[in-house]
Design a protein that fits this description.
427 residues, 30% helix, ten-stranded mixed beta sheet, alpha/beta
Length: 427
């Protein structure tokens, strides 16, 4: 992937046949109404519209409701859906709780800002709904644990929306790493080149009549309305997200967790550059993670490795027999000075995805957890939360992986969770 290509360009391509996905025969037919999954979409910004388009393309899915706190987003998405599905009847809501009250809805997708992910999912589990939820999994570390508890208690299904997980390239990288072809991996370098811009120092404005700002904030601390804090650029504020790092960690670290399953995290040390203006998430970030027998090093600039600078995002696995560098679509293996893109002797053992959304639908019907299930997503997401805490406190932190607590650091442990605003503490 070139430096000019980012995750949003990729997800536009993640239809059912992109990137070598295997298309299941069931997709070609038209499912009977009784076999269809009745889905509602909550959060209708850019990614929410992708959710709507992806699921609208699946014959086994019937979209029955849309929800957003912004009336403009809600109306625009409804119009797009009606253009895709002439004659469709879909209900619209400004409050997601009305969707959860409906017994005829089987599942929801969640593409709200990060600070709403956990509460909506947990409430949906309690209401008997399955959930396809966008990454990052949750706003803070403890929320992921809370989500898992409610999902298991209510026997629900969850898929995290890290769509790139379904790509053939990641599946092949996992097979090669697990085969031992590059030996025991001792270091993985991850990077995402920063492409963000300063937001300046904008001032408070009147809330648009079409926006329910109080509900948009929900569990987050109250603040007066500033447009730059809302919608897409929300992610550059620590009250709602964690900047580009939180946006992309799950995408590229996913291939590491799928292939190596890092265990025994011990130390986290983050340093970074702050924005000059209103945004307070890190503008650039370097994080060193020390696991049992493994180091994972995240940087905002490519490492000094041939070819890395041409990749806007990437992973570089260092083993005792060779190396492997990959991004979403490509891979380059080097063993004994020989460079190759594949190893024919490594068999295909990792079942290919039918498509990330189809995987969710199949899992819901079979009542089995999908590939990016909640237990997996929680493990994958946790280091991201801990890296942000180290950045905020400006110091190295020691982690007890068994207890899921920082060692001897009350200030750091306090940041593992956040008490929602009283009126929006719904779970």
């Amino acid at each position: 992937m070139s430096v000019h290509t980012n995750r949003r360009d990729f997800v536009k391509m993640v239809g059912l046949g992109a990137l070598g996905f295997t298309i299941l025969p069931s997709l070609y037919g038209k499912a009977a109404a009784s076999d269809r999954l009745r889905i509602a979409h909550i959060g209708l910004g850019g990614m929410g519209n992708n959710h709507m388009k992806w699921f609208a393309d699946l014959p086994e899915v019937e979209i029955v409701a849309l929800c957003d706190v912004d009336e403009l987003h809600l109306g625009e998405t409804k119009t797009k859906l009606e253009g895709m599905k002439p004659g469709i009847k879909v209900d619209t809501y400004g409050d997601f709780r009305k969707i959860l009250d409906r017994k005829d809805i089987d599942a929801i997708t969640v593409a709200t800002p990060d600070h709403w992910h956990a509460q909506i999912a947990a409430l949906a589990f309690q209401a008997g709904k399955d959930v396809y939820g966008e990454k990052p999994l949750s706003y803070c570390q403890r929320e992921g644990k809370m989500m898992l508890k409610h999902m298991e208690k209510n026997n629900r299904i969850f898929q995290m929306g890290n769509q790139i997980h379904a790509g053939d390239n990641f599946h092949r990288v996992v097979e090669i790493i697990k085969s031992g072809a590059i030996g025991n991996v001792h270091t993985v370098r991850l990077w995402k080149q920063s492409t963000t811009k300063e937001l300046g120092s904008p001032t408070v404005q009147a809330v648009p009549k079409t926006l329910n700002w109080d509900m948009w904030l929900g569990p987050a601390p109250f603040t007066e309305y500033i447009p730059e804090k809302c919608h897409f650029t929300y992610r550059y504020f620590l009250d709602y997200s964690g900047g580009e790092f939180a946006d992309f960690w799950c995408h590229i670290a996913d291939v590491v967790y799928s292939s190596i399953q890092p265990k025994g995290l011990k130390k986290i040390k983050a340093t970074g550059e702050a924005y000059a203006g209103i945004a307070d998430a890190p503008k650039t970030l370097n994080v060193d993670y020390e696991f049992d027998g493994l180091k994972i090093l995240w940087t905002s600039l490519p490492p000094d490795i041939p070819g890395a600078a041409e990749q806007g995002i990437g992973a570089f696995f260092e083993g005792d027999k060779g190396t492997l560098m990959c991004d979403y679509n490509t891979r380059k293996i080097n063993i004994n000075g020989e460079t190759m893109t594949d190893i024919a002797t490594v068999p295909i053992t990792n079942p290919r995805s039918p498509g990330h959304q189809q995987n969710f639908v199949d899992a819901v019907k079979a009542r089995t957890q999908p590939e990016s299930n909640l237990a997996y997503a929680r493990e994958l997401t946790m280091p991201m939360h801990l890296g942000l805490i180290s950045y905020r406190l400006k110091r190295e932190l020691t982690w007890n992986a068994g207890k899921e607590k920082f060692v001897g650091d009350k200030e750091a442990n306090k940041l593992l969770s956040r008490k929602p605003r009283k009126e929006w503490d719904l779970v």
